[in-house]
């Protein structure tokens, strides 16, 4: 019998439930990941006990979703979701069941789950309960629906995206009937919220296979939820997939990679496309703005001229330049170019930062208040003088001295 090393708290919860005459198992992704030798992110527990019976056995509980059978058992600072075996009612919105019925049978609970590899349960007494051959599918490295694939995807369209996401995370293929059913029902993704969609996209992009957007495209997902990718040629899709694999495992970089070629298919700048698309997907502002920034400056001039580099740092923002150069290095690798020049510019940027060269107005040795004291009126003229002084300092860092800048400011004022 295969043994899984249950965390102490999980074993305690299962033991308490079983000692009081109920069935209880760890279930779902934690069982899958344990079999694969991966560290589970969460440990979920399923039980024949009703929610109020679970609450009666543990001192601290939270009614997480008690109407759906879920109670969170608190042990110390950690919470563990314990859910009663259930049968889902009819799905009316391609996402949520209209009702939930509790059942004393584990098989009925496992039957409602999405994929065979997520429909396994485990406790130390009975070992792995694997009614739908999830272990076999792990060995075959395939994603396969529990029961009828059309029914599973018709119940919850988000499962179509989850199939590709698990495929990307695990490097698995999608079983033929499962893929066919997903393609036939992909249009139902129109009914899924942007937040749910981007959550799956994010997990896919941060997986070892961010290029599996091509798998999502083959199933019909991208035509529905991200047409800006779908319209690209096969060659461009292959390139952006390679770029996504090469660049840093961060969401802004990988979204920027995915949309890198979008400018070929519209009159819109790729940076503007990224901003529009990611806003539509309701991603956070940091991801939106950073991905857009990478596309706006990714093809910046590569040079070893220090004054020019300081000007570039000013244009891109000192917090962005190193990230931009990493993205550029990934691009150069993808087209087979040597990245020595990019690395050299990267090193010069670091040297500029270590020296403390002025690369923005905030580092200028003179302030607006000091210019006012010298007789410079507040307003547009002051802004122009400060900008002129900064340009001088970018070319000649040694001029970033209050006395020198005061003299230069008076020259500009009197010219």
Give a description of the structure.
With about 425 residues, this protein is an alpha+beta fold. The chain has 22 helices and 11 strands. The N and C termini lie far apart (about 90 Å).
By helix and strand content, what is the structural category?
alpha+beta
Strand content: 5-15%
Radius of gyration: 28 Å
Quick check: average pLDDT? 93
Note the main sheet: 7 strands, mixed
> What is the CA-CA span between the terminal residues?
89 Å
Uncertain stretches: none
Helix content: 40-55%
Number of distinct beta strands: 11
Number of helices: 22
Shape: elongated
Describe the structure concisely for a colleague.
This protein has helices at 8-19, 29-36, 51-57, 106-111, 134-140, 149-155, 158-170, 176-185, 194-205, 213-219, 221-225, 227-230, 234-246, 251-258, 270-280, 285-297, 306-316, 321-334, 340-355, 368-373, 380-395, 402-414, and strands at residues 24-27, 44-47, 61-65, 70-75, 78-84, 86-88, 100-102, 121-123, 127-129, 142-143, 173-174. It is of the alpha+beta class and 415 residues long. α6 runs parallel beside α8, α13 (234-246) crosses α18 and α21 packs across α22 (402-414).
In terms of topology, how is this protein built?
Layout: H1 8-19, E1 24-27, H2 29-36, E2 44-47, H3 51-57, E3 61-65, E4 70-75, E5 78-84, E6 86-88, E7 100-102, H4 106-111, E8 121-123, E9 127-129, H5 134-140, E10 142-143, H6 149-155, H7 158-170, E11 173-174, H8 176-185, H9 194-205, H10 213-219, H11 221-225, H12 227-230, H13 234-246, H14 251-258, H15 270-280, H16 285-297, H17 306-316, H18 321-334, H19 340-355, H20 368-373, H21 380-395, H22 402-414
Parallel strand pairs: 2-5, 10-11
Antiparallel strand pairs: 1-2, 1-8, 3-4, 4-5, 6-7, 8-9
Helix pairs in contact: 6-8, 7-9, 13-14, 13-18, 14-16, 15-16, 17-19, 18-19, 21-22
